[in-house]
Design a protein that fits this description.
Elements lengths: L2 E9 L5 H20 L6 E6 L15 E7 L2 H12 L3 H11 L2 E11 L11
Antiparallel strand pairs: 1-3, 1-4, 2-3
Helix pairs in contact: 1-3
Length: 122
């Protein structure tokens, strides 16, 4: 059974949405792929939140929602160890995050039993 992690990530206040997205896609994710190797998630999807959110507000604490899919809990455990507890690699990751992530607007959740709805046929 797959194991999923959802990340809600906010950008540093001094960055534009474009700068945040560029750093995320061209620096951060390639760094994770290089450092984590086979422990990188099986599937990684990032969705960026637009300038306007529900209710007409222009303020949102998060700039992206990412879904990380792992083969199983053991795969996630290897990822987490490499990401957060592996010394030099985790220090490089933390230093990179400091450049673009607002840690006050960062959250992660393990999700279970995802349900997908599709339109009903006539």
């Amino acid at each position: 059974m797959t194991f999923k992690l959802i990340l809600l990530v906010g950008r540093k206040p001094n960055l534009t949405h474009t700068q945040f997205r560029n750093h995320y896609e061209t620096i951060y994710i390639p760094l994770l792929q290089r450092l984590l190797g086979d422990d990188f998630p099986r599937c990684y999807t990032c969705t960026y939140i637009g300038d306007r959110v529900c209710g007409g507000s222009t303020e949102c604490a998060h700039d992206s929602v990412s879904e990380l899919v792992f083969d199983d809990a053991a795969h996630f455990a290897r990822f987490w160890h490499a990401y957060a507890e592996s010394g030099q690699e985790s220090n490089q990751i933390a230093a990179c995050e400091e450049g673009f992530v607002n840690l006050l607007n960062f959250a992660y959740y393990v999700v279970e039993n995802a349900v997908e709805a599709v339109p009903l046929e006539d």
